[in-house]
Amino acid sequence: MTAPPAGTAEIAPGAVHVPGWLSLERQSFLVEQFRAWAAGPVPPTAAKVRGHEMSVRTVCLGWHWQPYRYTREASNVNGRRVLAMPSWLAALGREALTAVGDPDAAAYEPDTALVNYYDATAKMGMHQDKDEVSLAPVVSLSVGDTCRFRFGNTETRTRPYVDLTLASGDLFVFGGPSRLAFHGVTTILPGTAPAGCGLTTGRINVTLRVTGL
C-alpha cells in the first residue's frame, strides 16, 4: 500500500485530514469549473433551513440538495434540472480515498457534489450529512481562504469536538464510524487564499457524496 501523504492526520476513526493535497494548478481548475457551474442552469443559492437563510451559497451537481432531501430539479430555486456529475470529479473522489488508504476507494462512485461558496462572514452550523441513503464516505476539498472547521461526534452538536484549520488545497474525508459526525465551519479567515489558487477572496468547498438514490 502506498504511504499516505506527508502531514496526513486521523482526526477520529474514519476521519482523515490531508493538508495541501491539491496542487495550485488543480485548485485553480476547480475554481474555473465552479464559475462555469455557477452560470447555470441553477445559480448558487442560499438554502433556507427551518425558515432561516444560510450564509453559504451552494451549487449542486448530479442531484440537487434542499433541506432535507435530494431532487433532480431545483424545485426550491427555479425548477431547472441541475448539471450532471462530471466523471472526472468522481475520479478525483476515488483518488482522494486512495490517498487516505480507504480499501474500497476503487469502488467509490459519488453521484452528487455540493459546491459551497463562503464569503468572509459565512458560517456553517453544526450538522450531520444524513440526507443520503448511502453511508459511503464524504470527500471534502477546500480552495481559497482558510477556515476554522469543527468536527464533532455522532451523538450531539456539542462537545466533544476538534477544531481544525482547513487551508486551500486541503482534503478532508469522513466515513466509517465518523460518517454521521456533526461538523461545521465557525470562521473564515479573509486574505489567506494563496496566490495562484484561482480565488482572491472567499472559500470554495467541494463535497462529494454517494446519495444511494
From TrEMBL:
Residues 109-212 form the Fe2OG dioxygenase domain. It comes from the Bacteria. GO terms for molecular function: dioxygenase activity. SUPFAM superfamilies: Clavaminate synthase-like. It holds the Pfam family 2OG-FeII_Oxy_2. Its cofactor is Fe(2+). Keywords: Dioxygenase, Iron, Metal-binding, Oxidoreductase. This is Alpha-ketoglutarate-dependent dioxygenase AlkB.
